[in-house]
Amino acid sequence: MGNATLQRRSWVVSATCLVLWAASTLSFAWYVFVVGLSTAQRQALEQFLSRPLETPIEPVVALLLSTVALGVFTGLSMVYYGYVQWRYARRRKLALESELETDTR
User: What rounded mean pLDDT belongs to the chain?
Assistant: First the structure.
């Protein structure tokens, strides 16, 4: 797999994660602030904050968990994308430096 392919692939993964995270965040915000939570959903969120493993699966809890998970995955994919870019730039710099040294000899 070439550098361009790896760069393109890591960019696509990062962009996709960012779009999915933004959609999940907007959906959660719309669901909580515009639609409003029912009493059962409020209780489920409060129970989730105090005892996360005993919480019944409500759509709002699942949406919250997916938003957090997508946020973490987005952060990790962006760090990996930055690493791929740095590694490419470093390899390119070393290649250019070695070419310069052979040209000056």
Answer: 84
Q: What is the pTM of this model?
A: 0.72
Q: Residue 58: CB partners within 8 Å, gap ≥ 6?
A: 40, 41, 44, 45
Helix, strand, coil % in the chain, rounded to nearest 5: 90, 0, 10
What token pair was written down for 98? 């070695």
Answer for the pair 64, 28: CB distance below 8 angstroms, yes or no: yes
Give the residue carrying structure tokens 């904050």.
49
Shortest CA distance to 39 belongs to which of 53, 60, 66, 54? 60
What string of DSSP letters covers 40-72? HHHHHHHHHHH-GGG----HHHHHHHHHHHHHH
| CA-wise closest residue to 31 among 67, 85, 83 | 67
